[in-house]
Amino acid sequence: MKIIQVQNAVEGGQQAFELLKQAFLAGKKTYGLATGGTPETLYQVMIQSDLDFSDCISINLDEYVGLSGENEQSYRYYMNQHLFDHKPFKETYVPNGLASDLTAECARYDAIIQANPIDFQILGIGENGHIGFNEPGTPFDQTTHVVALTPSTIAANQRYFTSKEEVPTHALSMGIASIMQSKEIVLLAFGEKKAQAIQAMLEGEVTESLPASILQKHPNVTVIVDQKAASLLN
Ligand code: F6R
Question: Which of 119, 118, 179, 120 shows the shortest CA–CA distance to 145?
Fold first, then answer.
Protein backbone atom coordinates (compact mmCIF):
# COMPACT_ATOMS: atom_id res chain seq x y z
CA MET A 1 0.00 0.00 0.00
CA LYS A 2 1.18 3.48 -0.76
CA ILE A 3 0.96 5.97 2.12
CA ILE A 4 0.69 9.72 1.67
CA GLN A 5 1.04 11.85 4.79
CA VAL A 6 -0.65 15.23 4.76
CA GLN A 7 -0.97 18.12 7.22
CA ASN A 8 -4.73 18.09 7.52
CA ALA A 9 -8.05 17.08 5.97
CA VAL A 10 -7.99 19.94 3.46
CA GLU A 11 -4.68 18.81 2.04
CA GLY A 12 -5.88 15.21 2.21
CA GLY A 13 -8.92 16.08 0.11
CA GLN A 14 -6.70 17.77 -2.45
CA GLN A 15 -4.36 14.76 -2.63
CA ALA A 16 -7.30 12.38 -3.05
CA PHE A 17 -8.67 14.62 -5.78
CA GLU A 18 -5.36 14.47 -7.66
CA LEU A 19 -5.59 10.67 -7.72
CA LEU A 20 -9.24 10.77 -8.70
CA LYS A 21 -8.44 13.26 -11.47
CA GLN A 22 -5.77 10.93 -12.88
CA ALA A 23 -8.33 8.13 -13.01
CA PHE A 24 -10.88 10.48 -14.60
CA LEU A 25 -8.42 11.69 -17.23
CA ALA A 26 -7.53 8.04 -17.96
CA GLY A 27 -11.19 7.54 -18.89
CA LYS A 28 -12.43 5.85 -15.71
CA LYS A 29 -16.18 6.22 -15.35
CA THR A 30 -17.30 4.35 -12.24
CA TYR A 31 -16.61 5.75 -8.80
CA GLY A 32 -17.30 4.06 -5.48
CA LEU A 33 -18.12 6.73 -2.91
CA ALA A 34 -18.31 7.00 0.86
CA THR A 35 -20.16 9.29 3.26
CA GLY A 36 -19.19 10.55 6.72
CA GLY A 37 -16.94 13.38 7.79
CA THR A 38 -13.80 12.13 6.08
CA PRO A 39 -14.54 12.60 2.35
CA GLU A 40 -16.11 16.04 2.75
CA THR A 41 -12.96 17.93 1.77
CA LEU A 42 -12.54 15.74 -1.32
CA TYR A 43 -16.13 16.42 -2.39
CA GLN A 44 -15.56 20.15 -1.96
CA VAL A 45 -12.57 20.01 -4.30
CA MET A 46 -14.55 17.92 -6.80
CA ILE A 47 -17.35 20.48 -6.75
CA GLN A 48 -14.94 23.36 -7.32
CA SER A 49 -13.11 21.52 -10.11
CA ASP A 50 -13.93 21.78 -13.79
CA LEU A 51 -14.26 18.00 -14.14
CA ASP A 52 -17.58 16.98 -15.66
CA PHE A 53 -18.97 13.76 -14.18
CA SER A 54 -22.20 13.79 -16.17
CA ASP A 55 -21.01 10.72 -18.08
CA CYS A 56 -19.96 8.88 -14.89
CA ILE A 57 -21.59 6.46 -12.49
CA SER A 58 -21.32 6.49 -8.71
CA ILE A 59 -21.97 3.57 -6.40
CA ASN A 60 -22.10 4.31 -2.69
CA LEU A 61 -20.92 1.95 0.00
CA ASP A 62 -23.86 1.94 2.33
CA GLU A 63 -27.14 3.28 3.68
CA TYR A 64 -29.07 3.08 6.94
CA VAL A 65 -32.03 0.74 7.08
CA GLY A 66 -35.27 2.59 7.72
CA LEU A 67 -34.32 6.05 6.45
CA SER A 68 -35.69 7.51 3.22
CA GLY A 69 -33.54 9.59 0.89
CA GLU A 70 -35.38 12.68 2.12
CA ASN A 71 -34.28 12.09 5.70
CA GLU A 72 -31.42 14.45 6.42
CA GLN A 73 -29.47 11.69 8.17
CA SER A 74 -29.68 9.29 5.25
CA TYR A 75 -26.61 8.71 3.14
CA ARG A 76 -28.59 9.45 -0.03
CA TYR A 77 -29.40 12.88 1.38
CA TYR A 78 -25.75 13.38 2.37
CA MET A 79 -24.55 12.52 -1.15
CA ASN A 80 -27.07 14.86 -2.79
CA GLN A 81 -26.05 17.69 -0.44
CA HIS A 82 -22.30 17.14 -0.52
CA LEU A 83 -21.83 16.26 -4.17
CA PHE A 84 -24.57 15.32 -6.61
CA ASP A 85 -26.65 18.50 -6.35
CA HIS A 86 -23.52 20.44 -7.32
CA LYS A 87 -21.77 17.94 -9.59
CA PRO A 88 -24.28 15.78 -11.44
CA PHE A 89 -23.41 12.19 -12.33
CA LYS A 90 -25.17 10.20 -15.06
CA GLU A 91 -26.34 7.57 -12.57
CA THR A 92 -25.96 7.50 -8.79
CA TYR A 93 -26.56 4.38 -6.73
CA VAL A 94 -27.09 4.19 -2.97
CA PRO A 95 -28.68 1.13 -1.34
CA ASN A 96 -32.39 1.60 -0.67
CA GLY A 97 -32.79 1.61 3.11
CA LEU A 98 -36.57 1.49 2.77
CA ALA A 99 -36.71 -1.64 0.63
CA SER A 100 -39.42 -3.97 1.94
CA ASP A 101 -37.29 -7.00 1.07
CA LEU A 102 -33.77 -6.25 2.26
CA THR A 103 -32.35 -9.53 0.94
CA ALA A 104 -33.65 -8.71 -2.53
CA GLU A 105 -32.23 -5.20 -2.21
CA CYS A 106 -28.79 -6.68 -1.45
CA ALA A 107 -29.03 -8.89 -4.56
CA ARG A 108 -30.14 -5.90 -6.65
CA TYR A 109 -27.18 -3.88 -5.40
CA ASP A 110 -24.71 -6.69 -6.14
CA ALA A 111 -26.09 -6.86 -9.68
CA ILE A 112 -25.49 -3.12 -10.06
CA ILE A 113 -21.88 -3.54 -8.90
CA GLN A 114 -21.36 -6.51 -11.25
CA ALA A 115 -22.74 -4.53 -14.19
CA ASN A 116 -20.61 -1.49 -13.30
CA PRO A 117 -17.21 -2.63 -12.02
CA ILE A 118 -15.82 0.08 -9.77
CA ASP A 119 -12.77 1.82 -11.19
CA PHE A 120 -11.95 4.04 -8.23
CA GLN A 121 -13.16 3.49 -4.68
CA ILE A 122 -13.02 6.11 -1.92
CA LEU A 123 -13.02 4.75 1.62
CA GLY A 124 -13.02 6.12 5.13
CA ILE A 125 -12.25 3.89 8.09
CA GLY A 126 -14.10 3.36 11.36
CA GLU A 127 -12.38 3.56 14.71
CA ASN A 128 -12.81 -0.22 14.93
CA GLY A 129 -11.32 -0.72 11.48
CA HIS A 130 -14.58 -1.06 9.57
CA ILE A 131 -14.81 -0.16 5.90
CA GLY A 132 -18.24 0.54 4.51
CA PHE A 133 -20.35 -0.84 7.32
CA ASN A 134 -18.37 -4.07 7.36
CA GLU A 135 -17.89 -4.41 11.07
CA PRO A 136 -15.19 -6.56 12.74
CA GLY A 137 -15.92 -10.22 12.15
CA THR A 138 -17.47 -9.71 8.70
CA PRO A 139 -16.22 -12.48 6.38
CA PHE A 140 -13.84 -11.26 3.70
CA ASP A 141 -15.92 -12.97 1.00
CA GLN A 142 -19.05 -11.04 1.95
CA THR A 143 -21.06 -9.24 -0.76
CA THR A 144 -23.83 -6.68 -0.09
CA HIS A 145 -25.52 -7.50 3.19
CA VAL A 146 -27.66 -6.28 6.09
CA VAL A 147 -25.53 -5.24 9.04
CA ALA A 148 -26.35 -4.91 12.72
CA LEU A 149 -24.30 -1.86 13.70
CA THR A 150 -21.97 -2.27 16.68
CA PRO A 151 -22.41 -0.14 19.79
CA SER A 152 -19.16 1.71 18.96
CA THR A 153 -20.36 2.60 15.45
CA ILE A 154 -23.76 3.70 16.80
CA ALA A 155 -21.97 5.85 19.39
CA ALA A 156 -19.66 7.35 16.74
CA ASN A 157 -22.58 8.17 14.45
CA GLN A 158 -24.70 9.62 17.23
CA ARG A 159 -23.21 13.06 16.58
CA TYR A 160 -25.42 13.37 13.51
CA PHE A 161 -28.64 12.59 15.38
CA THR A 162 -30.39 14.38 18.24
CA SER A 163 -30.37 11.27 20.42
CA LYS A 164 -28.77 7.84 20.47
CA GLU A 165 -32.24 6.27 20.17
CA GLU A 166 -32.62 7.86 16.73
CA VAL A 167 -29.49 6.25 15.30
CA PRO A 168 -30.59 3.32 13.12
CA THR A 169 -29.46 -0.06 14.40
CA HIS A 170 -29.06 -1.63 10.96
CA ALA A 171 -27.57 -0.70 7.62
CA LEU A 172 -27.07 -2.10 4.15
CA SER A 173 -23.44 -2.30 3.13
CA MET A 174 -21.44 -3.24 0.11
CA GLY A 175 -19.37 -6.24 1.15
CA ILE A 176 -15.64 -6.59 1.47
CA ALA A 177 -15.48 -8.87 -1.59
CA SER A 178 -17.01 -6.12 -3.74
CA ILE A 179 -14.74 -3.44 -2.28
CA MET A 180 -11.73 -5.63 -3.06
CA GLN A 181 -12.82 -5.93 -6.70
CA SER A 182 -12.41 -2.16 -7.19
CA LYS A 183 -9.49 -1.50 -9.49
CA GLU A 184 -8.07 1.31 -7.38
CA ILE A 185 -8.80 2.22 -3.76
CA VAL A 186 -8.02 5.43 -1.89
CA LEU A 187 -8.59 5.32 1.87
CA LEU A 188 -8.61 8.57 3.82
CA ALA A 189 -8.17 8.94 7.59
CA PHE A 190 -7.90 12.13 9.61
CA GLY A 191 -7.58 12.68 13.36
CA GLU A 192 -6.21 10.81 16.33
CA LYS A 193 -9.36 8.71 16.76
CA LYS A 194 -8.31 6.84 13.62
CA ALA A 195 -4.67 6.28 14.67
CA GLN A 196 -5.17 2.84 16.18
CA ALA A 197 -7.18 1.51 13.24
CA ILE A 198 -4.61 2.88 10.78
CA GLN A 199 -1.75 1.29 12.68
CA ALA A 200 -3.52 -2.09 12.81
CA MET A 201 -4.55 -1.86 9.16
CA LEU A 202 -1.04 -1.12 7.91
CA GLU A 203 1.16 -2.94 10.40
CA GLY A 204 -1.02 -5.65 11.91
CA GLU A 205 -2.00 -9.04 10.56
CA VAL A 206 -4.69 -9.48 7.94
CA THR A 207 -7.69 -10.52 9.99
CA GLU A 208 -11.47 -10.35 9.80
CA SER A 209 -11.32 -8.73 13.25
CA LEU A 210 -9.92 -5.63 11.52
CA PRO A 211 -11.83 -5.46 8.23
CA ALA A 212 -9.58 -2.79 6.64
CA SER A 213 -6.54 -5.07 7.04
CA ILE A 214 -7.69 -6.95 3.91
CA LEU A 215 -6.52 -3.95 1.90
CA GLN A 216 -2.94 -5.22 2.41
CA LYS A 217 -3.89 -7.85 -0.20
CA HIS A 218 -5.13 -5.37 -2.80
CA PRO A 219 -2.67 -4.40 -5.55
CA ASN A 220 -3.60 -0.71 -5.85
CA VAL A 221 -4.36 1.06 -2.57
CA THR A 222 -3.31 4.54 -1.49
CA VAL A 223 -3.80 5.56 2.13
CA ILE A 224 -3.95 9.29 2.80
CA VAL A 225 -3.46 10.14 6.48
CA ASP A 226 -2.91 13.29 8.45
CA GLN A 227 -0.25 13.40 11.17
CA LYS A 228 -2.66 12.49 13.95
CA ALA A 229 -4.02 9.44 12.15
CA ALA A 230 -0.43 8.41 11.37
CA SER A 231 0.82 9.04 14.90
CA LEU A 232 1.02 5.37 15.99
CA LEU A 233 2.85 4.15 12.86
CA ASN A 234 6.32 2.75 13.35
C1 F6R B 1 -19.43 5.72 5.12
C2 F6R B 1 -18.70 4.52 5.47
C3 F6R B 1 -17.96 4.39 6.77
C4 F6R B 1 -17.14 5.63 7.12
C5 F6R B 1 -16.45 5.45 8.46
C6 F6R B 1 -15.71 6.71 8.87
O7 F6R B 1 -20.07 5.57 3.88
O8 F6R B 1 -18.73 3.61 4.72
O9 F6R B 1 -17.13 3.26 6.71
O10 F6R B 1 -16.20 5.85 6.11
O11 F6R B 1 -17.38 5.13 9.44
O12 F6R B 1 -16.63 7.72 9.12
P13 F6R B 1 -16.16 9.24 9.30
O14 F6R B 1 -15.57 9.66 8.01
O15 F6R B 1 -17.42 9.99 9.62
O16 F6R B 1 -15.16 9.23 10.40
Answer: 179
